[in-house]
Prior knowledge:
This protein folds into two domains: 31-162, Glutaredoxin, CATH 3.40.30.10; 178-285 and 323-331, Glutathione S-transferase Yfyf (Class Pi), Chain A, domain 2. It is 40% helix and 6% strand. The protein is built from ten helices and six strands, in the order αβαβββαββααααααα. Strand 5 (139-142) and strand 6 form a beta hairpin. The chain is globular and about 50 Å long. Residues 28, 57, 59, 96, 134-138, 152-154 line the site of glutathione (GSH).
Amino acid sequence: MDSLKSLSMTQAALSWVSKTGAFVPTPSTIRNSISKDPKSQFPAESGRYHLYISYACPWASRCLAFLKLKGLQKAISYTVVKPIFERTKETDQHFGWVFPSSSTEEAGAEPDHLNGAKSVRELYELGSSNYSGRYSVPVLWDKKLKIIVNNESSEIIRMLNTEFNEMAENADMDLYPSHLRARIDDVNEWVFDAINYGVYKCGFAIKQGPYDEAVTKLYNSLDKCEEIFAKQRYICGNELTEADVRLFVTLIRFDEVYSVHFKCNKKLLREYPNLFNYTKDIYQIPGISSTVNMEHIKKHYYGSHPSVNPHGIIPIGSNTNYFAPHDRDRFNN
Ligand SMILES: N[C@@H](CCC(=O)N[C@@H](CS)C(=O)NCC(=O)O)C(=O)O
């Protein structure tokens, strides 16, 4: 990797680190809602919205998982970016998500046939002339108004769950049912802090104290999950919910990436019998495996964070088969 590229990408990663040396994420800023109400500003309409995602990104992948679980492929189209950050403009040093220039350049990724953008940054600039936030994925794009509707995955998945039911193949599937909302909210809170972001806090800490704190919290929470999964099939009971999708996207990246790249190496996922079987169980739900592209995941993390992995070497990994049998059927009600 050349030194200028390495410096800019390092600066991008370090911009999220606070004075104490801890990783602090910046909140998403485009937060409009799509509604099933036809009179709303962003009504749910088949063919109107488009998702821009990266297979590498856990937050974007959870949106794709909802799209597949709900059976919304015909109503909402999507485009996948290239896995490794590249320069997004000739005139400055920003590195971020880019599109390939042809369908054959990078397996799994596609050019932006919709807007002809070269980068995700360009989409943000097309949608707003004074945008000053991060150029992150996922991006939920409105083809009619040619703007970004929302760039916060936790909100996008809620919209996909309820607002598109008229055109969803699996309209009856409710991943945030009212009787479980309090429990889902509670699980989401500690899973988000200790696990989803916990791995990033371990990986991007630049001082020992914040790393120690994050890694302790992470493993306490994984141990807690392991105990929960000894008693029930899913994280909120014996029903699949949003909280499972949110947990899964981190677990599936754990052994191949986070254990090495983010120094989460006290224990591997496959050393936790229940967590490992649970991850296989979720992976085998129809639609989910198609949202996991391990090539893109590994290329992205190992190739886009020179502050963590300066030479971009991709470790060999276990190439675990998540289609292998699991024992979670024992909780069938
Ligand atoms: N809060 C956002 C976070 C999304 C996010 O952090 N995406 C990362 C990839 S995993 C990203 O696009 N980073 C590129 C950048 O910020 O420039 C969400 O959940 O939607």
